[in-house]
Specification:
The chain is of the alpha/beta class. 44% of the residues lie in helices and 20% in strands. Helix 2 (38-53) runs antiparallel to helix 11. Bound molecules: pantoate. The site of pantoate has 10 residues, from loops.
Length: 323
């Protein structure tokens, strides 16, 4: 149904050409998750700032809860200009812009301060620039969070315990390879995945703690391991042609509002983590607070030597972050 709506929306927008007008009276913005989610909070803050700073002349219409399909489908629609903007999880970007997967390299960032130093510095700017090769204007990085493993089968302390788990991964070759390297059985799927977990089509998933709370995954997942294996960012983007066609003052308005919304949302996201963890415990999840991360690191080390990291541009970005 979401897919049908997404197709109708796309055809309609391409026929009428409405969103491609070089004006920003009403901006369409897509997020796959629902109100209360990290992406929606960034989107709502952006909408609020744009309205306020344009004195009501520009408004933002947020399409959420999968109304425009999966994140891969949303990226296609933004690329075509049927939708103007999106706040999209980094995972599905890697089929559009291979270089961006460097940010999701496992165990790359030791804490939020390091994340901010990299993403708000020259390397972050370079990563946003790479998006232009696929027709996106990269505006800011809002936050999904450090990803942790959950499953319905067994406590996971070492990487060996994750072996054989049927795990849902984002629609991303890189994430699939990552879980293969860990010996699990990964299946790429869009979002949401509650019924697949409930029906045991899959045993496991990995996501930041807010996701377990907003989507009540503690009802269908018993074991939580605080692996923090990947830092998951959202990339806040616009259709490049549309963005470039706007007058300079509107471009500045949009870029600064998105930057400020991302900074606001990152702080909010971080302030919720401890409460989210308590909520999981209160709802009966068994939490492995100190998994043997070295066993995970050992297994994923080989990813660095894989073909997908061989392209010079990708390798150079990864090396810069590691430095
Ligand atoms: O796992 C995902 O697909 C993402 O982390 C989610 C839940 C859509 C949030 O960005």
């Amino acid at each position: 149904c979401a897919c049908l709506f997404a197709c109708l929306f796309l055809v309609c927008m391409l026929v009428t050409g409405l969103p491609l007008q070089a004006s920003a009276a009403q901006i369409s913005l897509a997020v796959v998750t629902k109100p209360g989610s990290a992406q929606y909070i960034a989107a709502a803050k952006f909408a609020e700032l744009v309205k306020e700073r344009s004195n009501g002349a520009t408004t933002v219409k947020i399409f959420h809860s999968g109304a425009l399909g999966t994140e891969t489908e949303m990226l296609q629609q933004i690329q075509l200009g049927a939708v103007q903007m999106g706040i999209i999880t980094l995972g599905p970007f890697d089929t559009f812009v291979p270089e961006v997967k460097v940010v999701a390299f496992p165990f790359l960032f030791k804490d939020h301060a390091t994340v901010d130093r990299v993403l708000d510095g020259p390397v972050g700017q370079e990563i946003l620039k790479t998006l232009e090769s696929a027709g996106f204007k990269g505006l800011a990085f809002s936050e999904n969070g450090f990803r942790h493993l959950t499953n319905s089968r067994q406590p996971v302390h070492t990487a060996m315990d994750a072996g054989g788990l049927k795990i849902r991964v984002m629609e991303s070759t890189f994430h699939k390879e990552l879980w293969r390297a860990l010996g699990a059985n990964p299946t790429p799927m869009g979002w949401p995945i509650y019924s697949e977990l409930q029906q045991h089509t899959i045993d496991a998933q990995e996501n930041p703690l807010w996701v377990l709370s907003v989507y009540k995954l503690y009802e269908v997942q018993k074991y939580l391991s605080l692996t923090g294996h990947v830092y998951s960012t959202h990339i806040d983007i616009a259709n490049l042609g549309w963005f470039n066609s706007l007058p300079a003052d509107q471009q500045t308005l949009i870029a600064t509002a998105m930057h400020d919304a991302a900074i606001f949302q990152r702080a909010y996201n971080r302030s919720q983590e401890a409460a989210n963890l308590e909520e999981m415990r209160a709802n009966g999840m068994i939490v492995e607070e100190h998994p043997d991360l070295q066993s995970f690191r050992d297994r994923v080390a080989k990813l660095r030597d894989m073909d997908m990291y061989a392209a010079p541009a990708t390798r150079a970005l990864l090396d810069k972050i590691l430095e």
